[in-house]
Design goal:
By secondary structure, the protein is α/β, with parallel strands linked by helices. The chain is 47% helix and 17% strand.
């Protein structure tokens, strides 16, 4: 049975959807004022795989990923560029779709934009005002945090501690420093919409509450996003949605961990900020996806050239196993598919799932070496099918291996060995060992070691990795 770590309770829980056989899932998407960076890529790949595994497990999934297309940052960037807000957001929405398609993501079933849901946003704000959870102050509408019992439960924060570090900016009309804006009064030159409280625009938090409940109902199964969204964004979503709808909001909260760059937190101020479109031309896009899945989604992940090279090498080994084998339909259930399911049902343990694929590839290589054609094709079919659940291994192996990335090209240019040459040398060493030509076997092992390639001999054959 699938077990998911619930951020609300802090533990893994058996998953049962509210509606039998149907999972309703909302994931916070992009605020479209700039290009997507690799941290965004991590979050979106993670939840793409969550959606894929739910579907592979037989569920019908309704997957919603929103677009925030009105926001302070968007307005500021449009002004800096001297273009209308709509033109700016259209540019970055197109770029986002290109990036996500390059990373092999399935399109969401619904991709709502905040500006398309103004009636729903206004209705939810009005409900909060009517119920006494919100108040009007000089054209703004603010949520009264003290009115909601349980505020801070998701993030583990106490109101007293939050108030101790809070401050009210000049010009704000909050009754409590923790109160947050639901509707902002219009400023000259900014986009605005009519409302019962005057012209203005919505706050960020209310947008997600209105869009998610409009498409999935007031109570649904899974809400996901990056760890940085837990507070205040998701905490505020809970407060306003539960108050407006009068019900529980979400059963399972999921949050992916941070992405670091060379062991430092990614930030523009440190100059270690990479966009997806900067990275993808330098490597095969599937490598970035495999790199993201090589770490458990809840933990931190370190983006570095060395880790990308390891992901490239691991993916190449899988494609090398598939090369020159016509895949056949796999058996309905095998030891490999059972182990893969155990990994994915354990809170989407993609590192363990990838390990199963590597073991399966070694079994396929053993069958190829023995010329066991009756075994090769079903093994190749299973490897491709399980890889497809993770969104990898769907390219033609020969074509994929023939393409070069700056990662592997750089190794070759610096005197290193590319993956194909390494595999050929390992095959020659295996043949030498069978012929009991130990001198040749040792020579090849030493040559590989000098090139920074570590061999590991096991019952399923020889595997390798770079230092």
């Amino acid at each position: 049975m699938l077990r998911i770590h619930n951020s609300m309770t802090g533990r893994k829980e058996a998953f049962e959807p509210l509606e039998r056989g149907h999972v309703r899932m909302y994931v916070c998407g992009m605020t479209v004022y700039d290009y997507c960076h690799v941290g965004h890529a991590r979050s979106q790949v993670v939840f793409d795989v969550v959606r894929r595994w739910l579907e592979a497990s037989g569920y019908r999934v309704t997957y919603v990923r929103n677009i925030t297309d009105i926001d302070d940052k968007i307005i500021q960037r449009a002004a800096e560029n001297g273009v209308p807000v709509g033109e700016l957001t259209a540019q970055f929405i197109r770029a986002m779709h290109e990036d996500f398609e390059g990373l092999g993501m399935l399109p969401p079933h619904h991709e709502p934009r905040a500006t398309q849901y103004m009636p729903e946003i206004l209705a939810m704000i009005q409900a909060l005002v009517d119920k006494g959870y919100a108040y009007v102050a000089d054209g703004d509408v603010l949520y009264s945090v003290s009115k909601f019992e349980g505020y801070g439960r998701l993030s583990g924060k106490r109101l007293a501690d939050l108030r101790a570090g809070a401050r009210v900016e000049i010009g704000e009309h909050k009754r409590d420093p923790l109160d947050f804006v639901l509707w902002k009064a219009a400023k000259p030159g900014e986009p605005s919409w009519d409302s019962p409280w005057g012209a203005g625009r919505p706050g960020w938090h209310i947008e997600c509450s209105a869009m998610s409940t409009a498409l999935l109902g007031g109570h649904f199964d899974i809400h996901g996003g990056g760890m940085d969204l837990k507070f205040p964004h998701h905490e505020n979503e809970i407060a306003q949605t539960c108050a407006a709808c009068g019900s529980k909001f979400v059963d399972v909260w999921m949050h992916n961990g941070f992405l670091n760059i060379n062991d430092e937190k990614m930030s523009k101020s440190l100059g270690n900020f990479f966009t997806v479109r900067e990275v993808l031309p330098k490597l095969r896009p599937e490598v970035l996806r495999a790199f993201i899945l090589s770490s458990h989604y809840r933990g931190p992940i370190n983006y570095s050239e060395g880790n990308l090279q390891q992901a490239d090498a691991a993916l190449s080994r899988l494609y090398l196993a598939l090369r020159d084998v016509a895949p056949a339909a796999p058996a309905p259930a095998t030891a490999w598919s059972d182990r893969f399911r155990e990994a994915m049902d354990d809170d989407f343990n993609t590192p363990e799932a990838l390990s199963v694929l590597q073991t399966l590839a070694r079994e396929l290589n053993t069958a190829k070496a023995a010329g066991n054609t009756g075994v090769m094709s079903p093994l190749a079919g299973e490897l491709r099918a399980l890889g497809g659940v993770l969104g990898i291994l769907q390219h033609d192996p020969g074509a994929w291996l023939a393409t070069r990335s700056e990662l592997t090209a750089g190794e070759s240019a610096s005197g290193g060995l590319d993956d194909g040459r390494i595999e050929a040398m390992i095959a020659s060493r295996t043949a030498a060992r069978r012929a009991k030509d130990w001198a040749e076997s040792d020579r090849l092992r030493d040559e590989l070691a000098a090139a920074g390639v570590i061999l590991e001999d096991g019952p399923g054959g020889t595997t390798w990795r770079r230092k």
